[in-house]
Sequence to fold (263 residues):
Amino acid sequence: MAQAARKPLISGNWKMNLNHFEATALVQKLVYELTPDDYAAVDVSVHPPFTDIRTVQTYFLAEKEPVPIRIGAQNCHWEDAGAFTGEVSPAMLAKLDVSYVIVGHSERREMFGETDEIVNRKVHAVFRHGMTPIMCVGETLEEREAGTTEDKVTGQVRAGLAGLSPEQVGSMVIAYEPIWAIGTGRTATPEDAQAVCATIRATVRELAGGEAADALRIQYGGSVKPTNAADLMACPDVDGALVGGASLEAESFAGIVRYRDRA
Ligand code: PGA
Fold:
């Protein structure tokens, strides 16, 4: 079955939390908590603030055994270098062993004016440097209540994937994050999450073909916790989770990575 081929990806989006000392303490605990069985079943990434990434990389490199936790970033610029005060380039992230870059998180779209066009440029930039984009899409509460969730999300998917090859689309990650569920403790029901994730996959099928649609991983994000992860992960089109608040503690993040124990 196509789904069996998609290894789940659980990603911790730390947002603007934890300095580099706190980052070390958290990854130290995660390395201690997670086992080879966990890594065999699930891909895991952590997305610290930029100022912590070098520290996390150095910590992992100093371990005796290779650490299978992948390093991620929360954002990047679309240019490789230049006069862009305050920005961080994808080339710099690739040098720090960053594997995944979150692109177009709703907080960036809403608070920092990121348009679909900017998101698309960033997706291309991440690929250009050999990293994997995690492109976020999702509707507001007003859009959900107005019945326009599907239009919003499919529009974001179409715009975000513009100009990519089917191979690129198949290798990337889309995170479905209903904005009303982020940081609110209000999680989408598994049925609602599955419905939108199935729509996303159908849109990808139409845009990039069946192989890409079967290979692409779709994460759900929005108040994921150890107690609700198993139900969400049981949905056929949910291939992982993008976790905010619950990724700031090793126990709760590890509890989500080990969702299978509660299934
Ligand atoms: P949350 O955040 O888990 O705190 O709701 C998810 C996200 O914004 O990626």
Q: What stands out?
A: The chain has 13 helices and eight strands. The pocket of 2-phosphoglycolic acid is lined by residues 13, 177, 182-183, 221-224, 242-246 (CB under 6 Å). The chain has one domain: 3-262. The longest helix spans residues 190-208.
